[in-house]
Amino acid sequence: MTIVHDKIAEYTAQLRREVSPPTGDLGFGGDLSCTDDLTSDMAEIDGDSPLAVAQSNYRRLTTAHGTLPDDPDYGRDVREFLNRGLTRLSLQEIPGQIRGELVKDDRNDPNKLSINMAIAADFKSFSLDIRGETARGPYSLTLAVTDGGVLLKEIQGDAA
């Protein structure tokens, strides 16, 4: 991280929520369990469970910015990092950019979010190891990113 990213992280950690998050029937509700597609049994999942947040983070990181009509600030397709010339400094900034996208979701605790990136020697792929926590528990998400796609290697979270 650079000093700028450190200062931004320090500043955002001090921000206080103006409105309490909704709870009960007004909370995040239910959702269908999915990453790239729905499960064959159309399984439902609690919208604020750690697994639902991990799945949501995956979809957020595989959706191109600005492609959702009702939320033009949603998404950061991580494959875009492979399709442009990057310096060593810009490579080091990628985890901070991913973090900035994930903290847009109020369910992610910004103080308990870590993103580790391993870049292949040929600079043609990288992997992401994301560990986070919600109000209901921890989750993990491991991705392999190539110009051909994003492979979901592992996703874990307490679905209770």
Keyphrases for this structure?
6 strands, two-stranded antiparallel ribbon, Nuclear Transport Factor 2, Chain: A, 26% strand, 3 helices, 24% helix, 4-stranded antiparallel sheet, globular, alpha+beta, 160 residues
User: What is the correct CATH architecture?
Assistant: Roll
How many domains make up the coordinates?
1
Computed CA radius of gyration, to the nearest angstrom:
16 Å
- What letter string, H or E per element, gives the SSE order? HEEHHEEEE
Structural class: alpha+beta
> Which band does the percent of strand residues land in?
25-35%
Low-pLDDT stretches are none
Count of helical stretches: 3
- From the spread of the alpha carbons, the general shape counts as globular
Put the structure in a nutshell.
The chain is built from three helices and six strands. With 160 residues, the protein is an alpha+beta fold.
What does this structure look like?
With 160 residues, the chain is an alpha+beta fold. It has a single domain (3-9, 28-157), classed as Roll (Nuclear Transport Factor 2, Chain: A). 24% of the residues lie in helices and 26% in strands. It contains 3 helices and 6 strands. The radius of gyration is 16 Å and the shape is globular.
Write the layout of secondary structure elements.
Blueprint (H helix, E strand, L loop, with lengths): L2 H12 L15 E3 L11 E3 L3 H11 L27 H15 L11 E6 L5 E10 L2 E10 L2 E9 L3
Antiparallel strand pairs: 1-2, 3-4, 4-5, 5-6
